[in-house]
Amino acid sequence: MNSSRLTAEINHLAHFSSHPAPAVTRVLFSPEDFAARTWLIDLATDAGFFIRSDAVGNLFITWLGSDPSLPAVATGSHIDAIPNAGKYDGVVGVLGALEAMRSLRESGHQPVRSIELIMFTAEEPTRFGIGCLGSRLLAGTTSPDQAHALRDPNGRSLDDLRPSSDPLSSVLLQPGHYSAFLELHIEQGPHLDASGIDIGIVEKIAAPAAFRLTLTGTGGHAGAVLMPDRHDAFLAAAEIALAVESSALNSSSPDTVGTVGKVEVRPGAINSIPNHALIEIDFRDTDLTTRDQAIALIQSTAEAICQRRGVSLLWQHINADPPATCAPHLVTLIESATTTLGYSQQRMISRAYHDSLFMARICPTCMIFIPCDKGYSHRPDEYSSPEAIAKGTLVLAESLRQLSAA
Question: Dihedral angle at the C-alpha atoms of 264, 266, 272, 275, nearest 10 degrees?
C-alpha cells in the first residue's frame, strides 16, 4: 500500500472543517460536509471505481467483481465530525478502505465478488441528535417516518437538508445484500496504545440507549423562597445524574457505562431558582439484560426523586439498540490475516458504537481496531500514527482480498 498517499489524503480531508486546525468540525450537510463528499467522489472516480449515493446521502464506491451477481463484500465508515474533533475518527475507515481497494487493484488482484466502500451519512448525532442515521435506515431500525420527523437545533428537517428527493424507503437493504462487512477504525480507547498491540479484533459492540428527561419545577427569587418550600428542577436533575453514575458503578457487568452528557437549566440566572431542567442520558453495555435492568432502576429512582421534590418529570425515549456480536468466521479470518502480516493482535470489545452495530443486522460483520495515542478521540489532539494506519489498512486489504476471491 501507499502509506504516504493515504497520510496526505487524511491530512487534506481535515481541511474541510468549520474550525481551524488542528480541530475538525464537519457537520452533516454543512458546506464543509458537501465539499468533503465532492472531494471523496473525485478521488474514487480518479481511481476508476463506480460511485452512487442513496436518498439519505450514503455514498457507495464500488469495484466491480468478475461475478457482480454475487453479494458484494462491503467496508467503510464515516467522515462527518462532531464540533472540535480530530481527523481520524471514521476517516481512517473510509480513506483506509479506499487505499486498500486501490492497492489490491495495483497489486493485480481481480475480485470475484464486488468490493463496495460505504461512506455512511451522519454517524455522529450532531445534526439531528441520533447517531448512525445512514446505517439505521439501511438496516431498517429507523423508519422513513421517524427520519422525516427529525429536526436539527434550528428546526430544519432531514428533508430540508438532504440533497436527494428520492423516497427514504429506497434506502433499506435486505438481509444478505452483502456477504460481509468490515469496518476499520481507531480504537477510541487506550488499551491498544498502552499495551503496544497493533490490531484489535472486535468480538462484540456495546449498544447504546439514550433518554431525554424534562423536569419542571417552580421558579422564584433566590432570596425570597425558603429552602423547605422549593421545587428546584435542577437539584432534581442533579440527583438523577448521580443515580445514573451509581447504577453504572453497581452493575454486575464490567462493560456498563452511563453518562449525563447534556444539561440545560432555565431561566439561567444566578438569583433565580431553576424551574426547568433538561438532561440527556447515554447508557450502554454489551449485555442487553443488564443494561435494561439498570435503566429501569434509573427510571424508578428518577420518579421517586421528582415526587419527593415536587417536580414533574417527562421521560422520553431517544433510542435503545441491542448490542451486536461480530461474526466468528470473520474474527477468525482477520486473526489469520493479521498473523500472516506479522502483527500483534488481541480480541476485544467496542464500547463505542459504530455503523457496524447496524450493518450486523444485514450481514456478517466485524471491526478492525488500530491504536490511537492515549486513547484520545473526539478532540483535536486525536492521533493515530501513519504506521498504525498502514498496518490496519493492510489487514483490511488482506481480509477483503480473501472475502472477495470466491
Answer: -100
What are the chain's domains? 3-206+324-404 (3.40.630.10), 207-320 (3.30.70.360)
For the cut 90, the answer to whether the pLDDT of residue 207 exceeds it is no
C-alpha span between 241 and 87 (Å, rounded): 31
Selection from 25, 23, 41, 43 nearest residue 33 by Cα: 25
pLDDT digits (tens, 9 = 90+) for 35-47: 999 999 999 999 9
Per-residue pLDDT band for 55 (boundaries 50, 70, 90) equals: very high
115 closest CA partner among 52, 53, 60: 60
Number of Cβ within 10 Å of residue 289's Cβ equals 10
CB 168 within 8 A of CB 146: no
Nearest to 179 by CA among 261, 68, 264: 68
pTM: 0.90
Report the chain's mean pLDDT, rounded to a whole number: 97
Helix residue spans in 64-108 (DSSP H): 91-106
Grid cell 444566578 — which residue?
A: 270
| Helix (H/G/I), strand (E/B), else coil: 6 | helix
375: left (phi over 0), alpha (psi -120 to 50) or beta: left
Q: Which amino acid would we find at residue 313?
A: L
- Cα–Cα distance measured from residue 374 to residue 194, given in angstroms and rounded to the nearest whole number: 7
The pLDDT score that the predictor gives to residue 332 is 98
Exposure on the CB side of residue 298, measured as CA atoms within 13 A: 34
pLDDT in tens, 341-392: 999 999 999 988 899 999 999 999 999 999 999 999 999 999 999 999 999 9
Contact 396, 225 (CB under 8 A): no
Q: What is the DSSP letter of 151?
A: B
**pLDDT tens sequence across 312-348:** 999 999 889 999 999 999 999 999 999 999 999 999 9
Buried b (16+ CB within 10 A) or exposed e, 267-280: eeeeeebbbbbbbb
Tell me the average pLDDT across 218-237. Answer: 98
Residues 6+ apart with CB under 8 A from 47: 98, 101, 102, 105
The conformational region for residue 34 under phi > 0 = left, psi -120 to 50 = alpha, else beta, is: alpha
What count of Cα atoms within 13 Å lies in the side-chain half-sphere of residue 403? 31
